[in-house]
Design goal:
Helix content: over 70%
Number of strands: 0
Radius of gyration: 22 Å
Amino acid sequence: MDRDDVTSENAIIQAHENSRQRERWILIALFIVLIATILASLTIGRYGVPFNQIIDIFTQRITGQGVSEANKEANLVLSVIRIPRILLTIMVGAALSASGAAFQGLFKNPMVSPDILGVSSAAGAGAALAILIGTSSAGVNIVAFGFGIGAVLLVMLLAKAIGRGSSTVLIMVLSGVVVSSFFRAMTSLAKYIADADNKLPEITFWLMGSFAKSGSNRNVIIMLIALILGAAPLLAMRWRMNVLSFGEEEAKAMGININRMRAVIVVCSTLLTASSVCLCGSIEWVGLIMPHITRLLVGPNYRVLLPTAMLGGGIFMLVVDNFSRAIIPGELPVGIITSLIGAPLFIFMLFKGRRDWS
């Protein structure tokens, strides 16, 4: 090997090392921002809790002294309302971002969102019907989750039945469009026949997406289980997702079972999206724009793109929820804010980041 080859190889190794170091610093920076946002979120709300009082409460609980009488009310607000809501918000943002990034890799299209297979539309229809017949809050969540999962199963069955000899991915997308349209029509029908004084406002509020009624310890545990079951397999197969982005022929040449991998991505992403929607309603744009933003930061390598998207999604969702709680005396549904932010931001990224797509 001559001197030029050695120099070139060393330059490549150095560039790779610099890239890895930059990725590590981005992950560390996002983690610090997440911690700072959590601390700020603990102080935000209709019941103001100063930061020094939060420190005092946590110090008393950690040391086992017991919460003082002066801090009992603030401790109740933090333990029952604020901390569960913050945790749920972060997990939902991470779940939607991971689902969006995975689907964008699977379909090799940066325009894909977590609702590409009709999960959100079906879950919304299920929730609307459950509210219409007077089901409890837990029942609404269960029916919404069941409809979301059922919609994706229907899409996969249609793709398998129709797509023989054709592009399975294309048939899945087209089937998702049809299924989404059908369930949106069901939602419109439920809103049309709902009681305008009672059921219709409840359905409308649920469809706009909000954490106002979902921040409970039960929902935190449910979302944590869904996040582990859905995100862990996606994180474990990040290098396969990189290979898949080069094309199915290359992936098959490396011994990857395309059909099995596609099924795992669809199942995991659907679980993440359906769990988020059934607990908090339809929150759009997060799963579409956050993978874009993180792709501009760290590139298309799923080894770092997926965890970065999850961190970024959690931060974004928490910031939006804080804004929704602080902007008006009541509370603005987060789905409205994500749409108002997401649409112009996505247009900006279409111009700025199209060269970085892969």
